[in-house]
Design goal:
Blueprint: E1 6-10, H1 14-25, E2 29-34, H2 37-44, H3 55-64, E3 68-72, E4 83-86, H4 101-113, E5 119-122, H5 130-139, E6 147-150, H6 160-165, E7 170-173, H7 178-188, E8 197-200, H8 202-233, H9 237-245, H10 266-279, H11 285-311, E9 317-321, H12 336-346, E10 350-354
Parallel strand pairs: 1-2, 1-4, 2-3, 4-5, 5-6, 7-8, 9-10
Length: about 350
């Protein structure tokens, strides 16, 4: 194992807990911190508040071996850590904009309580320009010398441990500073080759995260558009997507037709990116179409179900297999299965549900 680095995470959701546990597993000394006392109590008792394959076992091992600890915010002594990750939630505020309240709460706590110079790393998904705005606040205070960096996460729920341990790239938004770059090289050395750690401006790093998610969401909506056409032309969308995915320029990922994307990232991130474009007087026409298709797809699927039951004069009884937004997770945020359940209920269907 590498020489240990002392790092802290503010926020113990998917992003903070997965990253903190994986860094600890490579020999670092990690403290995961949260304002939720019940959550910290659960973690201290070696239980995680959500399902993620392999995470609880890894967490327990690192707690027992003394590398991973948990603290409430008032217990944490942040001065002892060389770097502090902010990994709190950044939900949609209901209008398509990103709610940065928790990010600024975390930063303001550091600002008021940590006076020695720290590397503050925004791991949360934040609109482009957020790190620069926070750095400006630091620069205006003569008592502070923190450096704000961006390090977006690219892990998939249900396969987060594997994604973190074997990343295809690590994106860092930071000043062109040798000391900062060496810190990140050392931190990520156990996971990835040096040439696959990409340093760029914080703006480019923040936009990279949104662009990745928006591009994947676009692939999903595109194949769903084709699926509706296939219905009308008596073509089999599974056969079409399988054949298309064999083209190495396209690949097989994110082109399986269904009732649309859900979860904690794609819905809010696509809306946020459209909002960011509008703020600077631009339109992302393709992405606006992606969102429109996603909104429409579940209604189209509901109509197919309704018409099938009417055509065959059947009793309106169905079973839903799977309620979480994707396999291998218990995350119900923006779940299409839950949305479908609610729509079917309004149509007076009798519904059974199953989820592992």
């Amino acid at each position: 194992m590498q020489k240990n680095i002392k790092i802290a995470f503010l926020g113990t959701g998917y992003v903070g807990l997965v990253a903190g546990t994986c860094f600890a597993d490579k020999g670092n000394e990690v403290n995961c911190i949260d304002i939720d006392k019940n959550r910290i109590g659960l973690l201290k008792s070696c239980k995680i508040p959500f399902y993620e394959p392999g995470l609880e076992e890894m967490m327990v091992r690192n707690i027992q071996e003394g590398r991973l600890t948990f603290s409430t915010l008032d217990e944490a002594k942040l001065e002892q850590y060389c770097a502090i990750f902010i990994s709190v939630g950044t939900p949609d505020d209901g209008s398509g904009k990103t709610d940065l309240g928790k990010v600024y709460d975390a930063f303001n706590y550091i600002k008021e309580n940590v006076k020695t110079s720290k590397i503050i790393i925004i791991r949360s998904t934040v609109p482009t320009g957020t790190c620069s705005a926070i750095q400006s606040i630091v620069d205006e205070d003569n008592d502070l010398n923190h450096i704000i960096c961006s390090n977006p996460e690219f892990t998939k729920e249900g396969d987060a441990i594997n994604d973190f341990l074997n990343p295809d790239r690590v994106v860092i938004g930071s000043p062109q500073n040798k000391e900062i770059q060496n810190f990140f090289y050392t931190l990520y050395k156990p996971f990835i080759l040096k040439e696959n750690i990409l340093f760029m401006s914080t703006e480019s790093s923040e936009l990279t995260k949104y662009t990745s998610n928006a591009f994947l969401a676009t692939r999903i909506s595109f194949i769903n558009d084709i699926a509706r056409i296939a219905d009308k032309l008596n073509a089999n969308i599974e056969e079409v997507s399988n054949a298309v995915g064999m083209d190495p320029r396209i690949g097989p990922h994110f082109i399986r037709a269904g009732i649309g994307y859900g979860g904690s990232c794609f819905p809010k991130d696509t809306l946020s990116l459209v909002d960011q474009a509008n703020e600077v007087g631009e339109h992302i026409n393709v992405l606006e179409g992606t969102i429109k298709t996603n909104d429409y797809q579940i209604s189209y699927f509901l109509d197919k179900i309704d018409n099938y039951f009417k055509k065959n004069n059947l009793k309106k009884k169905v079973t839903l297999f799977g309620l979480s937004f994707k396999p291998n997770t218990d995350d119900l945020r923006a779940s299409r299965g839950v949305m479908l359940y609610n729509l079917l209920k309004k149509e007076d269907f009798s519904i059974r549900c199953y989820d592992p």
